[in-house]
Task: structure prediction
Amino acid sequence: MTGSVAIIGLGNMGGGMAANLVKNGYAVRAFDLSDEALARAEAAGCTRAASAAAAVSGAHAVVTMLPAGKHVEAVYTDEVFAAAAAGTLFLDCSTIDVATARRVSEAATAQGFDMVDAPVSGGIAAAAGGTLTFMVGGSDAAFERARPILSAMGKAVIHAGGAGTGQGAKICNNMLLGATMIATCEAFAMAQKLGLDPQTFYDISSVSSGQSWSMTSYCPLPGVGPATPADNDYQGGFAVALMLKDLKLATQAAQSVDASVPMGNAAEALYQAFASSGQGSRDFSAIIKMLG
Ligand code: NAD
Result:
């Protein structure tokens, strides 16, 4: 046994992460507001807790995987801080705004706890398969304590810097991804209008300077490049609603530090329009349907 970990938030992502902690020898105490999520965690070998405080009490570390900043701040402030034993390590793996991440981390530090913000790259399949990438913000000491726990749930664990920089890395990365996906979609759509076969354009651009991950690892056209959600009618993958959430976090953060992000702003407006047309649950590469 490698210690006792409480995990709060056992949804699409947290459920798979909890199962991987169990597989790697941790005693996992699980809490979620959803009974169904708790039953799944129990089936994966976790011990069901009656509340967040009950899960935290006696644990060496606490992992949270919650929807947004308001949930993270409420769970730590209202329950976790008071229930945790001295020396407990906190790892928030949710994607939340940088300001809340820093505020919660400062509150934890003020009470003598180590905390990292450790958002992930990789979706539900990577959470289930234990192949997430973690971008970690926090002190050197907190990072070293967090590393083995995160390694049990992922394939890469990278120290981004001080508190909040994990969230900063995550939203800058996803802002880049949103913009390159839209640029790739509009290039494919225009190439077709100019008389190019999509496969031919892929063959050319994938070995030319327009190449990107959005093109060669996640091609938005069915039947072109490797298998992607485009081959499955844009089901599964990374939902438009989640991309829009991350773009909003990115443009808010940009405003707070007076960074000029015209491409990020454009990506947010386009994903907002696509989500508002009822497409929020489709994979984010489906935005090619709106372009052209
Ligand atoms: P989800 O909605 O499936 O899961 C969130 C869980 O938190 C739910 O089960 C909910 O019941 C629980 N919850 C909410 N408030 C709670 C509280 N106060 N106490 C206990 N449990 C509570 O969301 P998800 O897809 O698992 O995403 C979790 C986080 O990971 C989000 O911040 C998201 O942006 C991020 N993320 C998601 C993906 C993805 O592909 N789904 C990829 C990368 C990052």
Notes: The pocket of nicotinamide-adenine-dinucleotide is lined by residues 8-14, 31-34, 37, 52, 65-67, 71, 75, 94-95, 120, 123-124, 238, 242, 245 (CB under 6 Å). The first helix runs from residue 14 to 23. The first strand starts at residue 4 and ends at 8. The chain has two domains: 3-162, 168-291.
